[in-house]
Each structure stands twice: as C-alpha cells, then as structure tokens.
Protein: Lrp/AsnC family transcriptional regulator
Organism: Ornithinibacillus salinisoli
Amino acid sequence: MKYDDIDRKLLNLLAEDGRLSYVELAEKVGLSRVAVKDRIQNLKEKGVIEKFTVVINSEKFGKNVSAFFEVDVEPKQLQEVAQNLANNTNVASIYQMTGPSTLHMHVLVEDFKKLETFINDELYSVEGITRVESSIILKRFKSRTGFKL
C-alpha cells in the first residue's frame, strides 16, 4: 500500500492527539474537512489505524509498580498460557517473542506486595511455564503511543 506525505502527517497528528477534529486536522494539512475524513476512513478500512484510544498514566491511577517479564513456556502450551495471562487484569501487554516459546509481558500493579502476589499466585501457578525472569521499571523515558512516520 502506498501512502503519501499527507497520510503520514495525519497519522503523526493523530498519534500526538487522537481527539483532533476533522476541521483541526484539515487546517494542519491543508485539505478540506471532507477530504481528511475520507483519508482517515480509508486508513481505518485498510487497517493502518486499528482504533482510537486513550493513554492512561498508570501511576496516577494507582498502578505504581511496572514490571516486564520474560516467560518461557512449554511449546505445546504456548497459546493456552498466553491467553490465560492475557486475560489477567494486571497484564498490560503480552507478546510472543523469538526463541524457545518465550512470552514478553508488561505488568502493572499497585505495589510490591501485589507484584509478589501476582508472581506467586497468578504466574507461578500457570501450568506450562518453565522459567520466569522479571525486571522492574525504575523510570519511564518514552512509552509506545504510536510511532512517528
């Protein structure tokens, strides 16, 4: 699929502030409101724009501990384990990584006691997990909210 500079500019503007109106976007890219609406609808239909959402500051919402986990899983249980973990409300994101059936997981919890409970009661109890390695975030410099084109 080919996209021009206007599509890229629209996507960058929306990544910065997804609440911009078609009128505001049109003014910034030099097109009419209708042309911008059509372009955005086209980007949605082609799957370039998956959805519009809000980015929540987890710390201001009481989730003060942010940790990443590398979780090795028995290959035959990978899908089941991944779905089980994905359904956990503490899991912010989960990805299958290259290597021997490894899942990369981002977890947000209120405090270290909740992290301990998550690890012991909700992670180690999952059948099929063979190894868990964790890292706690000390400071965030950049979060994924889209990327610049």
